[in-house]
Amino acid sequence: MAANIGFLAIVVATLSSVWLIVEGYGAMRNPEPGGFQRLRGPVLGIVGGALVAMGALELAILTDDFSIEYVANNSASTTPFLFKIASGWAALEGSILLWALVLAGFVYSVYRQAAKRSDADGLGLGALFVLGIVSLFFFGVMLTVSNPFRVCIDPAVVGCFEAANLPWSGALAAAEGRGPNPLLQNHILMAVHPPMLYLGYVGMVVPFAFAMSALLRGESGSTWLKRTRVWTLVAWGFLTVGIVLGGLWSYEVLGWGGYWAWDPVENASFIPWLTATAFLHSSVVQERRGMLQAWNFVLIIATFALTILGTFLTRSGVIVSVHSFTQSAIGPVLLWFLMLVLVASFGLFAARIHLVASSPRLDSMASREGVFLFNNLLLTVFAVMVTVGTLYPMFTEAVTGDQVGVGRPFFDRMAIPLSFGLLLAMGLGPITPYRAAKGSVVWQRIRMPLQVALAATALAVVLGYRNRFLLIGTLLAVFVMGTIVRNLWTSARKAAGGWEISIPRAALRVMRNDTGYWGGQISHFGIALLALGIAISANLSVEAEVVLVPGGTATVAGYDLTYVEAFSREEPHRFVVGAEIEISRNGRVLGTEEPRLNRYGTSQQSIATPSVDESLTGDLYLSLKSINPERITLGVWWFPFIWLIWVGGLMAGAAVLWSRLVRKPKPLKERVPVSQGADDGG
Amino acid sequence: MAGDIRRTATWAITGVLAIVILVGFVQGDPEPEDRVARLGSAIKCPVCQGEAIIDSPSPTAEAMMDVLEEKVAAGETDGQIVDYFTARFGDGIYLDPPFAGRTLLVWLIPMAAVVGGFWMILSRRRVAVDEPAEAEPS
Amino acid sequence: MTETTDVTDPADIPSEPSSGGRRSGVSRRWLAIAGILVVVGLMAYVFNGRFGQDPRLVDSPLIGQAFPEMTLDYLEEEGSLDFDDLRGEILVVNLWASWCFPCRAEHPVLTAASEVYQDRGVHFIGIVYQDRESAAIGFLDQFGRGVNYSYVMDPDSRATVELGVFGIPETYFVDREGIIRGKVQGEVSPSLLLATIDDLIAGREPEL
Question: Is residue B107 part of a domain?
Answer without folding.
Answer: yes
